[in-house]
Amino acid sequence: MSYGRTFTEWRAQAPDWDAYTRHPFVQGMADGSLPRDAFLNYLVQDYLFLIHFARAWALAVVKAGDLDEMRACSAVVHTLIDHEMALHVETCAAAGIDTNAMLATPEALTNIAYTRYVLDAGLSGDFLDLLAALMPCVLGYGEIGSRLAAEAAPDTPYRDWIDTYAGPEYQAACHSAGELLDRAIAKRLGNAPQSSPRWATLGDRFATATRLEVGFWGLGRA
Ligand SMILES: Cc1ncc(CO)c(N)n1
């Protein structure tokens, strides 16, 4: 799985990457053993997550350095709001949970911690700080989606979830996010970004967001 060279390097250096992408919750979706209530708890929290996460990508439009960067970030806002969130709305509606009930659900602390960490990365830092905090989310789910599309049990009840993240729209968003990251890095740090003093800090941000993803799966408890 490759979404660009910067991602490939940061991913290799994030100690919790496998704990995130191969979490028991993920394996439970793959083999179908994840309890439905656990999944729905997670999905309601994830709906609230995506609202703030879309705000963070919108902040990336504000922090972008040129029109191409603005266009790429606003495309992600669109994918999140008009495509990805439809999965949450439709799956929860089928379980009798409407959007008002979702919006009235208190945000879990690990949920607040994650989205506000990302927003703070953008508010207190620059475009690269923000992208580093945004990438584990987008690209991790892209990686999980394509792996599960290949490995999941044919009769898993989590097929809609898998199809959303393995599907062409989400995968295209991942590829353009990976390219955006590579271009943004080259534009600001040059062709040997590893020798920039910022490289380690950015990798740390990526690793912290990865750690917050591991915590997020913990919200999926029945
Ligand atoms: C917690 C979390 N991370 C990543 C994604 C993918 O957008 C998501 N929906 N939720």
UniProtKB/TrEMBL annotation:
Summary of the function given for this chain in its UniProt record: Catalyzes an amino-pyrimidine hydrolysis reaction at the C5' of the pyrimidine moiety of thiamine compounds, a reaction that is part of a thiamine salvage pathway.
Domain of life: Bacteria
EC number of the protein: 3.5.99.2
Domain Thiaminase-2/PQQC per the UniProt entry, residue ranges: 14-217
Listed CDD domains: TenA_C_ScTHI20-like
Statement: the UniProt record of this protein carries the keyword Ribonucleoprotein: no
Catalytic activity from the UniProt record: thiamine + H2O = 5-(2-hydroxyethyl)-4-methylthiazole + 4-amino-5-hydroxymethyl-2-methylpyrimidine + H(+); 4-amino-5-aminomethyl-2-methylpyrimidine + H2O = 4-amino-5-hydroxymethyl-2-methylpyrimidine + NH4(+)
Hydrolase in keyword set: yes
GO molecular function, one term: thiaminase activity
A Pfam family that the UniProt record links to this protein: TENA_THI-4
Organism of this sequence: Paracoccus mangrovi
Protein name stated in the entry: Aminopyrimidine aminohydrolase
Entry keywords, A to Z: Hydrolase, Thiamine biosynthesis
Pathway: Cofactor biosynthesis; thiamine diphosphate biosynthesis
Recorded family membership: Belongs to the TenA family.
